[in-house]
Design brief:
Number of domains: 2
GO biological process, one term: aerobic electron transport chain
Distance between the termini: 26 Å
Cofactor: FAD
Helix content: 25-40%
CATH topology of the largest domain: FAD/NAD(P)-binding domain
Family: Belongs to the NADH dehydrogenase family.
Radius of gyration: 21 Å
Protein name: NADH dehydrogenase
Structural class: alpha/beta
CATH superfamily of the largest domain: FAD/NAD(P)-binding domain
GO molecular function, one term: NAD(P)H dehydrogenase (quinone) activity
């Protein structure tokens, strides 16, 4: 039997499984999914869990059931590329013939002292749960600072405003405007929404260190009750510890078929892979589908054909009634993008 092992049951790992099992697979193939959780967590919505606007159970998706698919629950600690072994915490290693790594990302603290110790996170289900407890146990009029004016920070701030209208909420962003990679028109719309809903935006803030109740803008102390970190991501430690060529963001460099050039039996998906896109669930899913095509072609002894990835755009929410998006070069704002995002979430929950 040949064994394909997939590390991670997130957007990329499950998109690969869906593509593989959409048609006939070799009779001598076994597919093994390894994940530390017994379900997929919809990571793009962890901000809502943290804010308290959705329940934990609303963001769980059951893993699919197929005859040739087995699921092993465990936490991956390392991968031995030479011996073709995946090591798990407090468990026996698992052998593979082919490997797809889709382990996702974790917070990037940029070397800021105290950031990891004294801030809350949205990068895991357990982290979002803990952030929810802290935010929603905070007394009225408490001060919340969100470090980072990107998509996660904006969505967390807007949902928290709806969930806790009694709190003082502020975004600390090092740029001149929130969502700086998007058109000025979108940033201006978001800033107006925040102004109308009493969410402060502090631009040009360079967080130099974090303490228990203080965030420092260089040497200026900013008193706070809770600080949430949304100021960057990086691949998980398993990827960081692999001795492979990587890009400046620490993501693994791949060939045209998304294989590790020195180990073509290994594929890397999503946030762990060096792709020409900002890391996202959409990019991970689109790339994983192509890897599925590649694998099936190779199993048939065909020559794989891979086309450049094309993404549909980006959608964001401002609470439950407003949203924004970028479709190609077109900016969309208001109720429609929020409804579109709700539709995408509905589809994700019923993917299998």
């Amino acid at each position: 039997m040949k064994k394909l092992v997939i590390l991670g049951g997130g957007y990329g790992g499950l998109a690969l499984i869906q593509e593989l099992f959409s048609s006939y697979l070799p009779h001598d193939l076994e597919v093994v999914l390894i994940d530390r959780m017994p379900y997929q967590g919809l990571k793009t919505e962890y901000y809502a869990l943290a804010a308290g606007t959705v329940a934990d159970t609303e963001l769980r998706v059951k893993f699919p059931v197929y005859d040739k698919l087995s699921i092993h629950y465990g936490e991956v600690t390392s991968v031995d590329l030479e011996s073709k072994l995946v090591y798990l915490y407090n468990d026996d290693p698992i052998e593979y013939d082919q490997l797809a790594i889709a382990l996702g990302c974790t917070d990037q603290y940029h070397g800021v002292p105290g950031a990891e110790e004294f801030t809350c996170s949205l990068q895991s289900f357990s982290g979002a749960r803990e952030t929810y407890l802290r935010l929603n146990n905070l007394k009225p009029y408490g001060q919340v600072h969100i470090v980072g004016g990107g998509l996660s920070g904006i969505e967390l701030a807007s949902d928290l405003r709806e969930s806790r209208p009694d709190l003082n909420i502020a975004i600390l962003d090092r740029g001149a405007r929130v969502l700086s990679s998007f058109p000025n028109r979108l940033s201006a719309y978001i800033q107006r929404w925040f102004a109308e809903n009493n969410v402060e935006i502090h631009s040009g803030v360079s967080v130099s260190r974090v303490e228990k109740d203080v965030v420092y803008n260089v040497d200026q102390p900013i008193p706070t009750d809770i600080t949430v970190w949304t100021a960057g991501i990086q691949p998980v430690s398993v990827i960081q510890n692999l001795d492979l060529p990587k890009d400046r963001s620490g993501r693994i460099l791949l060939n045209d078929l998304y294989q590790v050039p020195s180990h073509p039996e290994v594929y890397v998906i999503g946030d762990c892979a060096s792709l020409p896109f900002v890391p996202s669930a959409q990019a991970a899913g689109a790339q994983a589908e192509q890897i599925g095509y590649v694998l099936k072609a190779l199993w048939r002894d065909d020559t794989p054909k891979v086309h450049p990835l094309k993404l549909k755009g980006t959608l964001g929410s401002l609470g439950k009634r407003a949203g924004f998006g970028l479709m190609g070069s077109t900016s969309v704002m208001g109720r429609v993008p929020r409804l579109l995002k709700s539709g995408v979430l509905w589809k994700s929950k019923r993917h299998f």
